[in-house]
Amino acid sequence: MTEQKRLVVCASHSPGMERDTEHVFGSEFRAGLADARAMVTEFDPDFTILFGGDHRRAFRHVVPTFAVAMSASILPEGGHDEGTLDIPVDVATEIAAHLLDAEFDISICRGVGLDHAFAQPLRDLTGDLNTYPVIPVPINCATGPLPSAARVLAFGEAVGQYLDTIDARVLVIGTGGLSHSPPSLELDAYDISDEERRRVIAEGAAAARKKIRPEWDKAFLSALAEWDGAELASLTDDARAQAGVGANEVRTWLAAGAAGGGKPLDAIVYQPVEEWITGMGLAVSR
């Protein structure tokens, strides 16, 4: 029996889930996360590649389309203290060199401060920020113009081609989406204070709860289950219009799936959670 070398897990994230400390909402999604975490524990990866988006916090004035982080901290957020990621620099450097050879003009990031887009999936799926070494790979999902879905798929394939050359068990995570439209991202401002961000979010929260689009979410999950590249690209390129500005984050799912070999990803759970303003989904490789 061939040993599984890559496990792909794609999951929604939401600050609202962490604020829900009593676990009042999203019980189905939380149960799905527990199942996925058990899969990760059994898989026991040597390291993780984490494709995540930025909420205009790490990258405000210079916004890379694709990047590889060589060192990174996690911002204090959602009741969590600041943290530092354990990044295997040698492997990250090899991936960066491979991507440059593949004609992706990536950015190299050092000392970058990442938010819940990266922290939440690590805590939820692996138990802690540094249970396994991790290489953060930011993809621009927030500040237009955004990379096309076809380019994101090609980028993920290039990462997968590097993984083909090494003997390691790799957990590949894509994080973000599904349908949601955070007020702070609807406001097309690249440099606002944390105080202003909180005000905008508070004022727009009620409207954001009604912007989940389950039909779009289910169509996207169905396309993942078939790994229908054309349909995934079509849905992703039209994500903002059909499913809200936050749906642009499914670009990370495309990259993760492509890096995992372009194989079907099965939905473990889908639950629209109005209190978290997000259609919460989770899919894993077979």
Automatic annotation (TrEMBL):
Keywords: Dioxygenase, Oxidoreductase. This is 2,3-dihydroxyphenylpropionate 1,2-dioxygenase. Gene3D superfamilies: LigB-like. It comes from the Bacteria. Residues 9-278 form the Extradiol ring-cleavage dioxygenase class III enzyme subunit B domain. It holds the Pfam family LigB. The lineage of its organism: Bacteria, Bacillati, Actinomycetota, Actinomycetes, Mycobacteriales. One of its GO terms (molecular function) is ferrous iron binding.
